[in-house]
Amino acid sequence: MRHFLNAVVGFVILFSGVGTASAAAAAEQCSSLFLVSHWEISARVQKNKFVTNRDLFEYGEVLHKDFKDSLQKLSPEQHWIDLGAGKANAQIAYIKSFPHSQSAAQATAVAYKLDRWFSPPKFDGKLQVKEGAFETQPTHTWKKADLVTDVFGVVSYTHDLHTSLQKVFDMMNVKGEFYIYASNYHTSVRVSEKTSLSLIDFLATIDGLRVEGRYGTIKITKEKENVTVPQLELLKYKDDAPPSRSFRVVP
C-alpha cells in the first residue's frame, strides 16, 4: 500500500471532538448532572469552538505509533470506526488513497452534529456517517470493528463514560484495536476511597484489554470476546475544551 498519509494535508473538518477555546462553566453537582436533558447537553457541546483541521495526517501524528501500520493492514472486509470524526475527512482521505474504493476497509464516521448542507461521499457504500450522540447509537446493529479511533472525541467529552466504553468494546472484534488521543489530566476515576486513577491507568484495570501508551496517547487491544467495563458514576463535570471530569467505580 502506498504512503497515503502524505497526500491528505489540506482537508478541513468543521466539527471534531476537541475545542481550542470555550467559555468554562462552573462545576455542577452530581445530582443535577444526571437530570440534564439531551437538549441541554447538545447546547453545551455546541457552544464550544472546535478545532477545524483534523485530517488523516494529524491522526498519524498524534495517535499511538502503531496506528498507521494497523490502518494500512486493514483488508476490504474489515471495519474502521472513528468517534468524533467531524466531516470524516480522515476516512475520506484514507478511501481516496486507493485506486478503487472497494479495496479500502469499510469506514464509519460518528459525528455529533453535521452542517445541513454537508453531504459526504459514499464511495459505493464504503463510507457511512452516523450523526448524533454515540451513547444513543444502535451500535449492536453495526458491522464489528477491527479498528476504532477517538481523537479528543467521545471518550474526552462524554458524561457517561461507562456506556461509551462498553459500547466500544462490545462492537469490536477480538484482536481489534482502539486508539485514543485524550488529555492525560482532565479525567480521573476513583476506584477506592483513597485511590483515583488516570484514564489510561483505569483502562489497564479492565480484564480482557491490553493497554499500551502514555500521556493520553493510548492503544487498547481487545483480547477476549466479553469485556465488562465497571459501572461508573459521574462525580464532577466542568465545561472546558476538553472538560474536566471525575468518576467513581460503583461498588
Structural notes for this entry:
With 251 residues, the chain is of the alpha/beta class. The chain has a single domain, classed as Rossmann fold (3-Layer(aba) Sandwich), CATH 3.40.50. Helix content is 21%, strand content 28%. The strands form three sheets. It has a seven-stranded mixed beta sheet. The chain is globular and about 55 Å long. Mean pLDDT is 83; it is low at 1-42.
Topology at a glance:
Layout: E1 19-21, H1 30-33, H2 38-46, E2 49-50, H3 56-62, H4 67-72, E3 79-83, H5 89-96, E4 106-111, E5 127-131, E6 145-151, H6 154-157, H7 161-170, E7 172-181, E8 187-190, E9 196-198, H8 199-203, E10 209-214, E11 217-222, E12 232-238, E13 244-249
Parallel strand pairs: 3-4, 3-6, 4-5, 6-7, 8-13
Antiparallel strand pairs: 1-2, 7-11, 8-9, 10-11, 12-13
List keywords for this structure.
Rossmann fold; 251 residues; 8 helices; 13 strands; alpha/beta; 7-stranded mixed β-sheet; single chain; disordered N terminus; 21% helix; globular
Briefly summarize what is shown.
The chain has eight helices and 13 strands.
Number of separate domains: 1
As laid out across the biggest beta sheet, the strand order is: 5-4-3-6-7-11-10
Instruction: Tell the overall outline.
Output: globular
Supply the helix-strand structural class: alpha/beta
Give the SSE string: EHHEHHEHEEEHHEEEHEEEE
Percent helix: 10-25%
- The mean pLDDT is 83
Instruction: State the oligomer.
Output: single chain
Main sheet specs = 7 strands, mixed
Q: What radius of gyration results from the CA coordinates? A: 18 Å
- CATH top-level class: Alpha Beta
CATH domain topology: Rossmann fold
Q: Helical segment tally?
A: 8
**How far is the first residue's CA from the last residue's CA?**
48 Å
CATH architecture: 3-Layer(aba) Sandwich
Poorly predicted segments: 1-42
Number of strands: 13
Q: Which homologous superfamily in CATH is the superfamily?
A: Vaccinia Virus protein VP39
Strand content: 25-35%
